[in-house]
Design goal:
Glycerol-3-phosphate (1)-acyltransferase; eight-stranded mixed sheet; single chain; 8 strands; 44% helix; alpha/beta; 9 helices; 251 residues
């Protein structure tokens, strides 16, 4: 049954990814920003359904207008999970561009890539973030810089909090908690030496996967303006860790 589930989901998912590439190449250039964002949101919702992942949203109302969503990072699915709530521009490591199909889609969906170790990379990304804020968009950031199993939150890098501070934009922490048959689990995490295709194959063969998004109290533009970026990063990390740690013994 697991093998049959994988085969069926992989076939349907491949079709959906190819359709997404066609939409990006042939349709997006003719559409306005609002329409592109709505398509990206609906497309992400359907992709998660095809992967068998149920999404639950809890906590505070997701902030509207220009906002920096700061989340812990567990899986390649995280991008689409947040997009399913609101189409979001993400900051992602440059290596994602090379992932089969998913990398091409992420690149075409307004992702801002950062090349770590390159001089002026953070400055360039900061300018791109400010452009998105000026047009009232949501920007998604995973400040841990890499994925974790999802039961603890790794230290946050504070550099990319600066564009939100400079633009006086609200920062809202988001805690992502993955479950397997209703129990906290590391099953969906994409960590270590596992390849993207290996993780995808494993996830597609499983049932009962779900993710809970907990939107936490936003840091107001006044708070963002007053605090240093390192303090903002620590405040966001602490609030996310408090949620992620709940029930962490169940895996």
């Amino acid at each position: 049954m697991s093998l049959l589930r994988r085969a069926l989901r992989l076939f349907v998912l491949a079709f959906w990814l190819l359709l997404g590439l066609l939409i990006l190449g042939l349709v997006f250039p003719w559409l306005g920003l609002g329409t592109r964002l709505r398509i990206k949101q609906q497309w992400s919702r359907i992709l998660l359904w095809m992967c068998g992942l149920k999404v639950t949203v809890r906590g505070c109302q997701p902030a509207r207008g220009a906002v920096l969503w700061v989340a812990n990072h567990v899986s390649w699915l995280d991008i689409f999970v947040l997009n399913a709530v609101r189409a979001t521009t993400f900051i992602a490591k440059h290596e994602i561009r090379s992932w089969p199909l998913i990398g091409w889609l992420v690149a075409g969906a307004d992702t801002i890539f950062i090349e770590r170790g390159r001089r002026h990379a953070v400055h360039r990304v900061g300018l791109e973030m400010q452009r998105r804020f000026e047009s009232g968009q949501a920007v998604g950031l995973f400040p841990e810089s890499k994925t974790s199993p999802g039961l603890v939150v790794l230290p946050f890098y504070a550099n990319l909090f600066e564009p939100a501070k400079r633009s006086h934009v609200t920062i809202q922490p988001v805690a992502l908690r993955y479950f397997h048959h209703g129990v906290r689990s590391v099953f969906a995490s994409f960590v270590g030496e596992e390849t993207f295709m290996g993780n995808l194959w494993r996830v597609l063969g499983e049932s009962g996967l779900s993710v809970e998004m907990v939107f936490l109290e936003p840091l107001s533009s006044e708070t963002v303006a007053e605090l240093k970026r390192t303090d903002l990063a620590q405040l966001a990390r602490t609030s996310i860790q408090d949620v992620v740690a709940v029930g962490h013994g169940d895996n």
